[in-house]
Structures are given as structure tokens and as C-alpha cells.
Amino acid sequence: MTYSRVAFRPRQGVTLLTQTQAGERLERSVRVRVGVAWGLLYFNTLTFFPHTSFLPIPGTVGKAIAQATLPAALLVALSINPKVVVRPNVLLCLVSLLVVGAVLPMLQPQSFGIVYRTFRMAGFVAGLWLLTPWWGRRDLLLVRCYLVSLWVVLGSVLLGLFVSPHRARANGRLGGVVWPIPPTQVAHYAAVAIGLVIVLWFCGYIRGRTTLILTVVGGAILVLTHTRTALAALIASLLIAGLSLVVAKPRVRRLFATAGAVATVVVLTFSAAITTWLARGQSAQGLDNLTGRTEVWGPLLAFPRDKFQEIFGFGLSNASFNGFPIDSNWLSSYEQLGLFGVVICVIILIFMLVTAYFQPRGVRRALALFLIAYCLVASFTEDGFTDVSPYLLDLTLAASLLVPPLEGSSLT
Q1: How far apart are CA 364 and CA 124, in angstroms?
Q2: pLDDT at position 16, please?
Q3: What is the model's pLDDT at position 2?
Q4: DSSP code of 324?
Q5: Which of 26, 53, 297, 368 could anchor a disulfide with 401, C-beta 3.0 to 4.6 Å?
Q6: What is the structure's pLDDT at 57?
Q7: Residue 8, pLDDT score
């Protein structure tokens, strides 16, 4: 019996991929879909206020678009994680406990809004679980995805300022008018984007010229929002992140020395202008009651509740009391999830800080400390992480930086 040797050759115009090239294409596709899933989850945290955009978007349509991004994010996440492989971690276990705590008030008669928000929270947390196999990557994939999401939104804010400056700066504060975003949220996005960029520059991951451009643009947006909480949280968290690197990074020591000298000169020279900016035209009474926040906090704490409501709250709502925003993570958690929610929030922050403390010095620890410190400072006057919010994404990103790389995973 004889055998003939046949040579198989590709047809003209057909390229045979090597195993390495196929692997690179698959990895590129996975990175893109992880970024899309993260971006959709981020977009789901954005609020929609009717009649504030210069685009003719009806309120029902805008809200439907925002809410539709959650099932879309779940579908994209399932496309890259079809076997539902998750990486065990303490943060999302604690956040899942918040979801359980949100379900308990539903045992009593509740409105449709509370039921819907509870299921939305559960779906959002499920989406975060599906992305856990990509935690701990050395290329900081999720950090890059978050930065892209932040700068896309900030770019829309700048576009609105260019197209409709009067509407974008209504009441003297910069907000989004392409997609309606209140000034406080714009300030949050700008502050986090600035902080992440500067910490990455501390560790040599971004060039100085790029850092300067992004910091100037983000700083201008932050100043135009006239938001004191975001500014204070940015300064405090950058200081903490920088101190974690000051021994290992000479450029951090030089920057701190230069920034200290410049800050002293600026404060002494422009103290009157800085005070005017911080006051925002408010009276002493307005500053004392934190722009009216304490007028809501007092009645909220005095509101009568039974034992069950004191422990587990009234269920997830729009973080308001008698029609006024609560604007505090701790009081909002107490109102929605009771003492149970407040205790879980405390445990989350303590766990994150302790975990970061025992991590080796480097970019991952510094980025995580920045995000944790920012959430801690902002939590006193901003709604936080007991509901679908950017703060929950901040803490999730911090947790993803505090885990070691997952070796040998077919997903990563």
C-alpha cells in the first residue's frame, strides 16, 4: 500500500492564523468586551433628569435608556464568562449582604419603586461578580476601563458647555446637558479621574505631558462645578495615596515639596478669592447647616420607626426624605437598610483599609488607597454605596486592585 503526500495550501486571500495570533485576537476581544460591560454598568449609575438636556429626550425614554444598560451589561459579561466563573472576595460578599438586607423590607407591603430598585441592585451586583475573573490583572485593565468611562462622560460635559454654555452653567455651577448630570456628580467624576491619572503618573504609568493636560482639563471642570466635597476628598485621598509612595518614589517627594510651597503662596496671595469660591455666595447659616443638609438629617433621625424598620430600614429608595435628598451615605444607609446597612458599610471600609495596609507598596496599593479614602471622605455629604452608584464602582475597583493576579485562568 502506498501513500501519497498532499500539501495543503491556503487559498488566495485566506490567512491562516498561528496559535499566538489567535490568542492575541481572543485576548483583544475579551478586553474590549470587559470594557464595554464595565462602561454599561457605569452608565447605569447615571441619573436622568427630564427637561435639563438640550437634546429633545423625553423623560421616559431617557430613563429607559439608562436602565436598559444593566441587562445589556449582563449579556456582555455572560458572553465572556458563559460558565459564570466568579472569584471569591470579601467586598462583593458584603455587598451581596446589602442586597439580602434590601430584600427583607420587601416582606412588608412596599411600593413598586422599592421592589424595582432591589432587583436592579441585585442585577448590578451580579454584573460585578461576573467581572471578578479579570480582577488583579497586571495591565490594570479595569482601571483603564474606568478611566475611559470617566473621560467619555466628562467629554460630554465639555461638549455641553461648548454648545449650550448658559444651560450648562445654570445657577453658576457646571453640569451635564448632553446627558443630564448634576454638578455634584460631574465633580465626583472629575475628581476621581484626576486622582487616578496623578497616581498612575506617580508610578510612571502615564507620561508627564499627558498627566498635565488631563489634570488641567479635569481641574477646570472640578472648579466650575463649585463642589467642595469633591475637592476636599480629592486633596485628602491624593495625600494618602502619595504618602504610601513617598518612600519609594522620588518624584512623589519632589511633587509634595513643590505642591506644599505653591499651595502656601497661593493661599496667602488669593485667600480672599478662595474663601469666596468656597462660600459659593452662601450665608454663615448656610455653611453651618451644610447647605441645608442638616435640616433633613434631624427629622430623618427623629422619624418614628418600629424595631424592624430600625434594624432593616424601609427598603431601597431614591435616597430622599420627605422629598429632599439625604446627601449622606450613613444616613441614607440608615433610612434604606437600617442599622444593618450602616454596620455593613463600616465593615466594608475597615476591611478595605486593613487589606490595603498590608499590601506591598506600589501602584495597585496607591490606587486602592486613593479610591477608598475618596469614598470615606465623600460619604459624609454624598449618597454612597448601599445602592447602585459610582461609589460602589469605586470600591469595587479598589478591591480588584488588592487581590493577586489569577494565574492559569482560561478567562484571563
Answers
A1: 24
A2: 52
A3: 47
A4: E
A5: 368
A6: 83
A7: 42
Tell me which residue of 24, 27, 37 sits closest to 145, measured CA to CA.
37
C-alpha cell at 211: 498627566
Task: Note the pLDDT of residue 4.
Answer: 44
DSSP per residue, 137-191: -TT-HHHHHHHHHHHHHHHHHHHHHHH-HHHHTGGGS--BTTTTB-HHHHHHHHH
318-330 residue pLDDT tens: 888 888 888 899 9
d(CA 278, CA 228): 7
Q: How far apart are CA 35 and CA 144, in angstroms?
A: 8
Sorting pLDDT into bands at 50, 70 and 90, what band is 283? Answer: low
Q: Are strands 320-321 and 324-325 parallel, antiparallel or unpaired?
A: antiparallel
Q: Nearest 5°: phi and psi at 67?
A: -75, -25
How many angstroms separate the CA atoms of 217 and 396, rounded? 26
**Distance (Å, whole) CA 47 – CA 262:** 38
Determine how many CB atoms are found less than 10 A away from the CB of residue 191: 28
Q: What is residue 113's DSSP assignment?
A: H
Average model confidence (pLDDT) across the chain: 87
Contact 122, 99 (CB under 8 A): yes
Question: How long a stretch of residues is the chain?
Answer: 412
Q: Phi/psi of residue 142, each to 5°? A: -70, -30
pLDDT at 53: 79
Q: Is the C-alpha dihedral spanning 292, 294, 298, 300 positive or negative? A: positive
In degrees and rounded to multiples of 5, residue 263 shows phi and psi of -60, -40
Owner of C-alpha cell 424592624: 308
Q: Judging by beta carbons within 10 Å of its beta carbon (0-12, 13-18, 19+), is residue 360 exposed, middle or buried?
A: exposed
d(CA 271, CA 249): 32
pLDDT single digits (tens) 88-119: 999 999 999 999 999 988 877 667 788 899 99
CA distance 268 to 342: 41
Tell me the one-letter amino acid at 169.
R
Please indicate whether residue 56 or residue 330 has the higher confidence score (pLDDT): 330
Question: What cell numbers appear for 378 in the block?
Answer: 465623600
> One-letter amino acid identity for 236?
A
